[in-house]
Amino acid sequence: MQKSMKRYFPIFVLPTLAAFTVAFLYPFIIGIYLSFTEFTTVKDASWVGISNYKKIFMDRNFINALIFTVKFTIVSVVSINTLGFLLAYVLTRGIKGTNLFRTVFFMPNLIGGIVLGYVWQLLLNGILARFGVTLSFSAKYGFWGLVILMNWQLIGYMMIIYIAGLQNVPGEMIEAARIDGATRFQILKQIMIPMVMPSFTICLFLTLTNSFKLFDQNLALTAGGPGRQTSMLALDIYSTFYGRVGWEGVGQAKATVFFLMVAVISLTQLTLTRRKEVEN
Amino acid sequence: MSRKGRNFETQQMEVGKTTGAILTAVLAVLSLTFLFPIILVLMNSFKSKLFISDAPFQLPKAGTYVGLTNYVEGIRKTGLFPAFGRSLFITVASVAVIILFTSMTAWFLTRVKSVFTNILYYVFVFAMIVPFQMVMFTMSKTANDLYLNSMYGLVLLYLGFGAGQAVFLFCGFVKAIPLEIEEAAMIDGCSPVQTYFHVVFPMLRPTAVTVAILNAMWIWNDYLLPSLILPQEKGTIPMVIQNLKGGYGSIDMGAMMAMLVLAIFPIIVFYLSCQKYIIKGVAAGAVKG
């Protein structure tokens, strides 16, 4: 079968591979090369070695964006996963209205980041107006605004994944534990959480990467203001490319560093949480 | 799955009646909190633009109610309806193309074992963890050189960007299909193309639904890629919303509220009409990376 199939490579693989090469593979490889050059239109690149990378770490905007992004990611990942799991746990207890609640909590996830950003801008500015300030008054407001927005958007998504995980816990196992006299909390801690580890792995991955790479919500809610204080990494890279002539090479170097960070963080997380998963 | 679900709910840790009622009440309040931002936008979309930023929590009343003015004004200003058409075309065409081509690729990569197909598979998986910013600049220049600055070009680019995750998901499923069925079809004289469309593709349907939902959610809401590829005046819905914010950060709040409502409305209708598939698809798409 393999032999007869091989000839069909152009039909089965080529269309995908061609699009993949144009959209991703070629730009990725050229991107790495360009991060070591100075250029404005890609074609006029001249080699400058690692000077772009040196510039990054002297760029206060980038350092600030990095710190902001890391803080934001930690707070978001912890809060979204805690609340998402809590909701999933409650919504698998067979209480009234479960389906309706599930529907409502998941809904924000379908609305795009740009639209969400402006929806929350209205609400948060409305609340802050009572204290005579706006979101762009202080980076603190922008930070917590983004955290709230992100929670609102992703809690329901994670809840769905945790529910799927919780429903896969075999009923007999819990029954057996209960007959042996385990309390509700013991069952949760000793059986459910270990059994739900695969869901935890994927939820952690999704929240971690989505928070770290956040762009649309950031652009719409604060646009980085005040000044550049609430610019996250993705937005900072964008502004470097399109807002600062002559800095395209630095932008590409920032993007490369950004890519390496995302890769290291997500691979480390996957290996660490995988190790905790139990066979089932 | 549904059997397991019932099993879980009936046998296990159900809560007592009083606790259940309290939890229902708490969750009802929480649900309202979740819906509140959207209701707030809806309410403000009927108010004069001068009364939105200052007092968003006030209901529209005689002096502030402006009927559909914001909607009329917003649609005129933004060209929301053509943008809706473009968003719809781009999303539907991209999802169709992604499902067709990546499932074919995944089948080939799983069935034909060689060093090359193996490497290709890992390159696709690798693409999943690369953030868009890494290729943003070089990709938009490449697209420009290849005359891809149109809706049709955008569909091709979405196939390229969506390929990583879609190939990965389809490969996971193809591995579980017994080889014998396909071999039987080939012995009966089917070519690989016939075998694929008559035998394999119908079996891939559950995964195809998952891939369709995940990609539709992403492409419909995507802002950055279309904004780099399409001309400003021929944008998608997220572009139109973002463009409402004029220079120096000034926004016509009335038009903004109305356009937000019109942007959210179709999503909610779509969600409520096929939420069963959406929720299932999202849960199924959450396989370990």
From TrEMBL, chain A:
It is a multi-pass membrane protein. Pfam families: BPD_transp_1. CDD domains: TM_PBP2. Residues 66-269 form the ABC transmembrane type-1 domain. The chain crosses the membrane at residues 12-36, 62-91, 103-123, 143-166, 187-208, 255-272. It is found in: Cell membrane. The keyword Ubl conjugation does not apply. GO terms for biological process: transmembrane transport. InterPro entries: ABC_transporter_permease, MetI-like, MetI-like_sf. It comes from the Bacteria. Keywords: Cell membrane, Membrane, Transmembrane, Transmembrane helix, Transport. Its main location: membrane. GO terms for cellular component: plasma membrane. PANTHER family: ABC TRANSPORTER PERMEASE PROTEIN, INNER MEMBRANE ABC TRANSPORTER PERMEASE PROTEIN YCJO. Belongs to the binding-protein-dependent transport system permease family. This is ABC transporter permease. It comes from Lacrimispora celerecrescens.
Automatic annotation (TrEMBL), chain B:
The chain crosses the membrane at residues 21-43, 88-110, 119-139, 151-174, 195-220, 253-272. Residues 84-274 form the ABC transmembrane type-1 domain. Belongs to the binding-protein-dependent transport system permease family. Keywords: Cell membrane, Membrane, Transmembrane, Transmembrane helix, Transport. It is a multi-pass membrane protein. It comes from the Bacteria. GO terms for biological process: transmembrane transport. GO terms for cellular component: plasma membrane. InterPro entries: MetI-like (IPR000515), MetI-like_sf (IPR035906). It is found in: Cell membrane. The keyword Cell membrane applies. Its main location: membrane. The keyword Magnesium does not apply. It comes from Lacrimispora celerecrescens. CDD domains: TM_PBP2 (cd06261). It holds the Pfam family BPD_transp_1. This is ABC transmembrane type-1 domain-containing protein.
